[in-house]
């Protein structure tokens, strides 16, 4: 497994991670219905044994349950993993002490003294102010409680501002976690990707399979369960629109003996400075994700996928 340095002197992580939004989330993912702690534990073990011991979580996921599960699995397995989690800038979090308190709570749930990456979950920091927020994060780096700082869902200008405020404290901005897949390519045209590359910021690509659309397993007669059923992309017209992309994914999958999902993830790995973090609720899903790395699409195959998915570049 190749690794990627988040910052010049910071942690190195695998070229793909595992997203854990579904671990403990009952509202969107129906945790506790057809899957639960046993299944996500198996997903954890499959990812670690397969060489991807890098997990992205957040205090918001399952209202802390995702962090609690991840911490428990790490302790009970005896394995050392790399963890990225997130701070949510809630309206009542006014001062720098709010960052310290939220990080302390996350570390307690994780059973750790440090996380490899701590990210701001959204750019809504007007109650605290960007200078206060970034200053608080820089202090936590210097305290040793976080190894690298990231942001999430930041625009190009917001990312550049965060980068500058951290740089003034001698701390690099490591990542911007944004939605990125063959069916969500807006960051290529709205300045986020270009700015990230210019600043040396890595892109953590969440929803890299477009919430399952790029697996090819859903049809108008067999949509996903839960809140995703309301997404118009799963309608007959929505599925018809992505059919050409799925056709190329299946064609390349046959050539490389891979699934459409694995080909879609490999396309992301081929993008400079991009680390996909597909979710996994079960061992089977984690193992499916693992099949996306350890091989490479040819440059002309990468371009073929880029061309067929070009309509999804519009901002």
TrEMBL record:
It comes from the Bacteria. CDD domains: AKR_AtPLR-like. One of its GO terms (molecular function) is oxidoreductase activity. Pfam families: Aldo_ket_red. Residues 16-309 form the NADP-dependent oxidoreductase domain. Keywords: Oxidoreductase. The keyword Ligase does not apply. One of its GO terms (cellular component) is cytoplasm. The keyword Ion transport does not apply. This is Glr1925 protein. It comes from Gloeobacter violaceus (strain ATCC 29082 / PCC 7421). The lineage of its organism: Bacteria, Bacillati, Cyanobacteriota, Cyanophyceae, Gloeobacterales.
